[in-house]
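WARN  no MSA supplied for this record, continuing single-sequence
INFO  ligand: FE2/S2 (inorganic) cluster
INFO  echoing inputs
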Amino acid sequence: MNKPMNEFEHNIVWAQVATVSDFPEDGGMCVQVENQQIAIFNFARRGEWYATDNLCPHKQQMALSRGMIGSHGADCEPKVACPFHKKTFSLKNGQCLSGDDLQIQTYPVKVEGASVFVGLVKP
Ligand code: FES
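INFO  complex generated
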C-alpha cells in the first residue's frame, strides 16, 4: 500500500474509486473522479499502487491507463509507457523519462481492505 508522503497530506480528500479485484495485476485502469480521468495502476509485482492523469501530454491522448508499466534505470523508478508513441513517465513524480519536456500529474493511492482510494488535493 502506498501512503502519501507530502506535507499536503491533511489537504487530501480521498475518493473511493473501485475494489482491488477490479484492477488487472501489473496494469492500469481509468476511473472518473470529479470530471477527471485518472489512471490507477496496480503494480502487483512490486506490491505498489500509483495514480496519474490518464491524459498523455504528448498528443493529448486519454491513454496512460492502457500503458505498459515497468521499472526504469538503476533506481528501478516505476514508470508507465504511453501506448501511442511510447513516451515514458515516472509513476512517482510524473516526470517524462524519455527526454521530452513533458510532465503528468500524480496522485496518492491507498488501499483499505478491498477498497482503492485516490487522493485529490482540496481546492
Ligand atoms: S500520445 Fe502518448 S506518447 Fe504520444
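The chain has one domain: 25-121.
INFO  checksum written, moving to next record
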